[in-house]
Design goal:
This is TetR/AcrR family transcriptional regulator. By secondary structure, the chain is an all-alpha fold. It contains 10 helices and no strands. Helices cover 77% and strands 0% of the residues.
Length: 190
């Protein structure tokens, strides 16, 4: 469902809310805390979403929508098929690098936010599959089963998203995506 049209003031408030939540997480905030930190009324927050849970979900969706736009902009500027996978995953890593551990942990514990992250992870895995298939078709990658490589990437991306990679080997989500980019590109290169 597309986001409702927002006034300039609401759009600014949503941006500030996203910046706050990304930096500090959201589980410990009440609506009163958010209104105070954002210097607005609770009524103003309710204009963005009806409950704190809906507000958090909307902020998480907004963050990932912006991140996806930034990633796709980088891909659009990359012509070489062999570079597109690297650029895609590296740019995903850059986008994730701004997320605090508190935000990532809160997303993992809050089902509506986790669902948004999971949906974006699935979309990213599909995008990797497509980029690999394009690279194979263009002769930039050796003949590989793009769907299989995409599934391996998707499984790893899910483990990253769930925090399992970080817990086991100590990489941030961003660092893990950088390593995944390197692994995939080297695995499929001629």
């Amino acid at each position: 469902m597309p986001s409702p049209r927002r006034t300039a003031r609401q759009a600014d408030l949503l941006e500030r809310l996203v910046a706050l939540l990304v930096a500090e997480g959201f589980a410990s905030f009440t609506l009163d805390d958010l209104a105070e930190r954002l210097r607005c009324s609770k009524t103003t927050l309710y204009q963005l979403a009806g409950t704190k849970q809906d507000l958090v979900r909307e902020a998480v969706k907004h963050y990932f929508r912006g991140a996806a736009d930034a990633v796709e902009k980088e891909i659009a500027e990359t012509v070489d098929p062999a570079s597109r996978v690297q650029v895609y995953l590296t740019t995903v890593a850059e986008q994730l690098s701004s997320l605090s551990r508190a935000f990532l942990d809160d997303m993992a514990q809050f089902p509506p936010a986790r669902e948004v992250y999971e949906a974006n992870t699935r979309l990213a895995a599909d995008r990797v599959r497509n980029l690999i298939a394009e690279g194979v078709a263009a002769g930039a990658f050796r003949e590989v089963h793009a769907a299989f490589v995409g599934e391996v990437a998707a499984a790893t991306m899910r483990q990253i998203q769930l925090g399992e990679v970080g817990a086991r080997i100590g990489l941030t989500d961003s660092e893990a995506y950088e390593q995944l980019a390197s692994l995939i590109v080297h695995a499929v290169s001629s």
